Amino acid sequence: MNNLIVKYHNVDIEKIAYLLKKEIEIVDNIQNNILNMPALNITYNDDLLNQAIINANDFSKNKNHFMIFGTGGSNLGSKALINILQGREKNRISFYDNIDPIGFKYSIERVDLKKTGCIIISKSGETPETLSQFASLIQFFDQENQLEFFLKNCLIITENKASSLREISNQYKCTILDHEVNIGGRFSVFSNVGMIPAIIAGIDVKKIHNGIKDILIKVKEGSFNEHLKLAKFFTSNINTNQIKNSVLMTYSDALFYFGKWYMQLWAESIGKDGKGITPIHAVGTTDQHSQLQLYLGGPKDKFFSFITTNHSKLGLKIHEKTLKSHKNSSYLAGKFMGDLMQAEQQATMDTFSQNGLAFREINLPKIDEFSLGQLMTLSMLETVATCYFLGVNPFDQPAVEQGKILTKKYLS
Question: GO molecular-function annotation terms (predicted)?
Answer without folding.
Answer: carbohydrate derivative binding; glucose-6-phosphate isomerase activity; monosaccharide binding
